[in-house]
Specification:
Strand order of the largest sheet: 2-13-10-12-11-14
Helix content: 10-25%
Number of helices: 9
Oligomer: single chain
Structural class: alpha+beta
Shape: globular
Largest sheet: 6 strands, mixed, barrel
Distance between the termini: 19 Å
Length: about 300
Amino acid sequence: MIHSNVLTKMGITSAKIKQSLSFICKVHKEDLAANRPERLLNPDFIQRNFKFINWKPDTLHAQKLSQNKKLLINLPKDKILMTKYYIHQAKARLNKSKKHPYALYKLPLDESNLTLEQAQENTTLTRYKYTKQEILKGVLDSPKQAEPLIFLSRKDLESSLMQGTVVADVNGEKKVFNVHRNNGMGYDRKIKPYEQNRYWYFKQVQGILGYGKDANNKVTVIPEVTFAGDIYKLGLGHLLFTQFDYKSHSEYKMAILADTGGAFENNLYQLDYLSGSYGGFKEYAAANRHLPDYISVWFMLLK
């Protein structure tokens, strides 16, 4: 729990969040060791040990941002908007080519050996100087101010910046890259992704990462049990109980609030569901078209 949150008055404290997560881990390990059915899949066990606080959306704030946004216009009063995100898979090259002209850059050279704390004290660093649009035009290359990690198509670059992680196929070898630090410019929800000025520098990592100060200090996340949201107000690590309503039935999932993004600054009406890893939007959309746009959400706390 690394942020203050708006839920303390309801008893959702950092200590309670840690207790709830620790209990989940303890029960899971005990059941594995005893080779018995998972108690976490037993509704009676869940109800006996947890209390549930229903989260209803901040519809007033959502209405202010709803112009031409059908999902916000139709936001129910008792459900949270569930958008979806995914880990992008891409073909990449180690050298610039006609099909792969855009670099995914490491931290600039003047910051490569600085800790985050040291870097934050120096606003003259290269990282803070340029917008995404300037970087796309090659401002970092002449003179060289940052080393490229890989080269991508524009479509794959934009998906990587938006999703925060890319699994790259580099000559048949799979490599994972995660956002490291950005240029200090905010994400503007009023303009299109391709026109944004926020830019992220990346780092090669061992697995899929969620929230953290930078790529050196991030939570490892797993698809289908991870949500991104406004952790600045809600806090990191919440155990969430969710209800997915389909045409003929409902399903219930437990998940962790372990990630965030530019769209979640002052956003108490939405969660972003980490759905999986896909080669592009069409593949992702085909695999997830059955998921609902709105879900019921409860904060789970150990009794």
